[in-house]
Amino acid sequence: MLTNITIGQYIPGNSLIHRIDPRAKILMTVFFVVILFVARGFFSYLAIATFTLAIILLAKTGLKVVLRGLKPLIIIIGLTVVLHSLFNTTGDLLFALGPLKVYSEGLRFGLLMAARLILLITFTSLLTLTTSPISLTDGIERLLSPFKRIGLPAHELAMMMTIALRFIPTLLEEAQKIMKAQQSRGADFETGSLVKRAKALLPLLVPLFISAFR
Fold first, then answer.
1. What distances in angstroms separate CA 5 from CA 152, 207, 211, one per listed residue?
2. pTM > 0.85: yes or no
3. Rounded to the nearest 10 degrees, what angle do helices 42-59 and 104-129 cross at?
4. Considering 14, 140, 146, 172, which has the largest number of Cβ atoms within 10 A of its Cβ?
């Protein structure tokens, strides 16, 4: 699961999206997020999904690579649909199983929220997949440079944000190494219930934090 997280990773390339000025890509990402949260209805999300797919194809990063980043969030996406379906009691009753009742409006809203989450993660991951850390730092710094007049440390903020993004895959790679080392000593992270596997991951935290501080 750790290797499926794509945020912070960069895939070198020479596609049209790779060549776009990083400032334009950052602003386009911000604009996309705003539009995504403003959008309402099926056709709006269909248009946004079509646009996202077109950007992925132009970026030539591979659809599988982008969608791979959704795997660690499958449980969260599923819970989003389930919780909205159960607790939103507006609309027509679709079916009932004992005390559990699912209404049409709750299911519709849950599916829209899941679609919003999927599109948000998919599109924002393209920013780091198609922009090198240095270009991303320069882009953020140039966008923040007008605020230097009021004392905003643009360079420091840009470096801090970029290092935080870039550090995600580095930290995940370190976690993967620690997991393999513990598995060679008999640790089991893949069998048992969800609670048992979550408890098995707790011993990773101490060596991972020590490695992060180093």
1. 32, 20, 19
2. no
3. 20
4. 140
